[in-house]
Amino acid sequence: xxxxxxxxxxxxxxxxxxxxxxxxxxxxxxxxxxxxxxxxxxxxxxxxxxxxxxxxxxxxxxxxxxxxxxxxxxxxxxxxxxxxxxxxxxxxxxxx
Length: 96
Hints:
Elements: H1 24-30, E1 31-33, E2 38-40, H2 56-59, E3 70-73, E4 77-79, E5 88-89
C-alpha cells in the first residue's frame, strides 16, 4: 500500500449570493422564541403561507404551543411563585 501526497491549490473565490432574510413583520407573525424552544408556524394569510393540511388550529388556535407555566390551585388557578409549595406545571391543553 502506497501513500500518495494530496496537493490542493486555491483557484479563486466564488461569489455566493447572500440569503434573503425575512422582514421583522414576518418574524413577528411566524416566530416565537423562549429559553425552552423556538417555534416557527404558518399564518392564516394565503398570500404568505400555504393552506394548512391538518386540523392543528382546532388544537392550537393561535398556532404556537403555550409556554410552560408553574401553577398552584389555591382559591383558583394562579401562577406559582418560588415560595409556593404544591405547584405543578400547567397542562398545555387545559385552556382550550
